[in-house]
Amino acid sequence: MTTNLEMEAEKIGLKISAEKTKVMQIGGGRAPHPITVGQQNLDDVERFTYLGSVMTEDGGAEADGTVE
User: Fold this and answer.
1) pLDDT digit string (tens) for 9-68?
2) CA 4 to CA 18: how far, in whole Å?
3) 0.85 cut: is pTM over it?
């Protein structure tokens, strides 16, 4: 699913790290088909931390450390 992105990134010396890349659907639910980088499926998460804020699948954001 990310083949075109991988090819374009490779042209300028970049590589997508499947281990560091996560997938989150805003509004809940899960992707109907796994999103892959190379042959590896990306992890589907309910929340992640980005620039000091915890992003959640309901579209919310809270300061890091306030989510249990």
Assistant:
1) 999 999 989 888 888 888 766 767 888 888 899 988 888 888 888 888 877 777 766 545
2) 15
3) no
Q: 12: number of CA atoms within 13 Å, CB side? A: 4
**How many angstroms separate the CA atoms of 15 and 9, rounded?**
6
SS (H, E, C) the chain: CCHHHHHHHHHCCCCCCCCCCEECCCCCCCCCCCCEECCEECEECCEEEECCEEEECCCCEEECCCCC
Cα–chain-centroid distance for residue 42? 7
Phi and psi at 33, nearest 5°, equal -130, 140
